Amino acid sequence: MTSPTLIVVSGPSGSGKTTLAHALARALGCPAICRDEIKEGMAHATPGFTPSPGDPLTQRTLTTFFEVIGLLLKAGVTVVAEAAFQDRLWRPGLEPLAGLGTIRIIRCTVDATVAQARIARRVEENARRAAHDDHDLLRALASGESSLDAFVPISLAAPTIHVDTTDGYHPCLPDILTFINDR
């Protein structure tokens, strides 16, 4: 039996991670486990929740995210895992999973103005985004307090591909799938 693959889709906010993760999961026939979607489900079950940096719900989300991924990998399931995956926060959760399957890292990149427009659009169009601190992120980006350039990508010893999502996918989806399946 071959080992499952853990496809790690990462990138800064607004870089198209979730959209790409779901497209990959559909193409591969496997689940996409998205950190933000887990948090949205927890927020739904927590009336009155207000997001803030490091809040208890965010901490529980992180633990649950890695537990679910580990459970699936141990069962032999290939998984697409999507989150920002900034190195210092996420590498400690990913490293223990390395022995459970083959890891492929996909780093989403995007033009900063496109990312900011995507963040603004999802705040307007998706009520579930209230579980996240997108309004503060937009304010910080607009004021220059924060920059998408501050994103520190995950640094694991695993094959990595950079995908520009500014206008479609470059490289294209079939090429990304070839990268994932190359053993």
Describe the structure.
By secondary structure, the chain is an alpha/beta fold. It has a single domain, classed as 3-Layer(aba) Sandwich (Rossmann fold), CATH 3.40.50.300. Helices cover about 45% and strands about 15% of the residues. A 5-stranded parallel sheet has the order 2-3-1-4-5, sandwiched between helices. Helix 2 packs across helix 3 and helix 5 packs antiparallel against helix 6. The mean pLDDT is about 85.
Mean pLDDT: 86
Report helical residue fraction. Answer: 40-55%
Q: Give helix and strand order, one letter per element, not per position.
A: EHEHHEHEHHEH
The order of strands across the largest sheet is 2-3-1-4-5
The name of the CATH superfamily reads: P-loop containing nucleotide triphosphate hydrolases
Please compute the radius of gyration using only Cα atoms. 16 Å
What would a concise description of this structure say?
InterPro entries: P-loop_NTPase (IPR027417). It comes from Kitasatospora atroaurantiaca. By secondary structure, the chain is of the alpha/beta class.
